[in-house]
UniProtKB/TrEMBL annotation:
Membrane topology of this protein: Multi-pass membrane protein
Superkingdom: Bacteria
Residues annotated as transmembrane: 7-31, 37-57, 77-98
Organism: Flavobacterium hungaricum
Domain GtrA/DPMS transmembrane residues, every copy: 18-131
InterPro entries: GtrA_DPMS_TM
Protein name in the entry: GtrA family protein
Localization annotation: Membrane
Length: 143
C-alpha cells in the first residue's frame, strides 16, 4: 500500500507540475515572441506564475494528506519560494548555456533543462522539504 500511495502522490505531483509548467512555458513564449522580452526575463516572470499554480495544486490536492492544512501556509510558501528561486535560476542558466554554447533554440533548451530541474531538483525538494509531514504529526495521527 505504501508503494501505491507513493506512486499516486508522484503522479499527482506530475499533474501539478504539468499544469504549472504548461502555463509557465506558454507564457514564456508569449512574453519572448510577442512582447520581445529576453527569454531569461520571460522565464523569471512565467516561472513565477507557473509556481503559484503549482504551489496551489500541491498544497490543496497533492500533499493535502501529508501536511495539509496543519502546516502554516507562510512556512510552506517561504520554502516553496526558495525552491522556485533555485528552479528559475537553474532553468534560466541551463537554457542560456544550451542556447549560447550549443546553439540550441531557447524553446528546446528550456524543455531539456526543465526535465532535469523538475525531476532532480523540484520534486524531491517539494515532497521532502516543502510539504513534508511533521514527524510529531505522524505519531499523533497513528495513535
Amino acid at each position: 500500500m505504501f508503494r501505491k500511495q507513493s506512486v499516486f502522490t508522484f503522479l499527482q505531483a506530475q499533474i501539478a507540475a504539468f499544469l504549472g509548467g504548461i502555463t509557465d512555458y506558454c507564457l514564456m513564449i508569449l512574453l519572448t515572441e510577442v512582447f520581445k522580452l529576453h527569454f531569461t526575463f520571460s522565464i523569471l516572470i512565467s516561472g513565477t506564475v507557473g509556481a503559484i499554480i503549482n504551489f496551489s495544486i500541491n498544497r490543496f490536492w497533492v500533499f493535502k494528506n501529508q501536511s495539509g492544512y496543519s502546516s502554516p501556509i507562510n512556512k510552506q510558501l517561504l520554502k516553496f519560494a526558495l525552491v522556485v528561486l533555485g528552479s528559475i535560476s537553474l532553468k534560466s542558466f541551463g537554457t542560456l548555456v544550451l542556447q549560447r554554447v550549443f546553439q540550441i533554440d531557447y524553446r528546446i533548451g528550456r524543455l531539456i533543462t526543465d526535465s532535469f530541474v523538475s525531476y532532480g531538483f523540484n520534486y524531491p525538494l517539494i515532497k521532502y522539504w516543502v510539504f513534508r509531514a511533521n514527524e510529531e504529526q505522524n505519531v499523533t495521527e497513528s495513535n
